[in-house]
């Protein structure tokens, strides 16, 4: 019996807010591909350019490579608008500047759904999460409320936006909902493969997109009717 509920799909626009290039591709991109195929409009906002994510590549060289790969990755799942905030990769701090920048994006794009990454201390496997993910995810959740209050960050000069229906965190150890990605699984693999330089620098299971993503999707699917699926923690506003 399934213990995960379907993610609601009664919305037409979403903003994805993550820390680094590749964050949404390790699990959540299959849902993005499903939703863009339904005609939903989805925009990505990344807190940094991932410049410190490849040990063998100088950050100055790495940043534009990872930006280009993220844009290609998004194109593989039907997303054409990708924005970067230029926070320092690896040392992103939760705080008012980050909340302000995310709230500004929410007010500009006016999404009904905000999607972020896992901001809990651990992954579903039990492994430790990293500080950037935790900071950005927490700030994204808080920025949704900030964006709806005209008296918070008035200096932005942007009209408040209270239209977010749902907030969801991908790959959370406290997942409550899931999305059937059977038909969009191949697109999710193509999206992760677009991070070519990053994958070439990795070792182990995470360096091989198809089997890694399939194992994740099958594991979630065991809790969601036996289909290929990806999980989210759906938060109440």
Which keywords apply here?
Rossmann fold; about 240 residues; alpha/beta; 8-stranded mixed sheet; globular; single chain; 8 strands; 7 helices
Describe the fold and architecture.
The structure is a single chain. With about 240 residues, this protein is α/β, with parallel strands linked by helices. The protein has one domain (about 5-235): 3-Layer(aba) Sandwich (Rossmann fold). About 35% of the residues lie in helices and about 15% in strands. The chain is built from 7 helices and 8 strands. It has an 8-stranded mixed β-sheet with strand order 1-7-8-6-5-2-3-4, with helices on both faces. Strand 3 (about 40-45), helix 2 (about 60-75) and strand 4 (about 80-85) form a beta-alpha-beta unit. Helix 1 (about 30-35) crosses helix 5 (about 185-195), helix 3 (about 95-110) crosses helix 4 (about 130-145) and helix 5 (about 185-195) packs antiparallel against helix 7. The longest helix has 18 residues, at about 60-75. It is globular. The protein starts with a strand and ends with a strand. The model has no long low-confidence stretch (mean pLDDT about 95).
How many domains make up the coordinates? 1
List low-confidence stretches. Answer: none
CATH topology: Rossmann fold
Terminal-residue CA separation: 28 Å
Briefly, what is this?
This is N-acetylglucosaminyl deacetylase, LmbE family. The chain has 237 residues and is α/β, with parallel strands linked by helices.
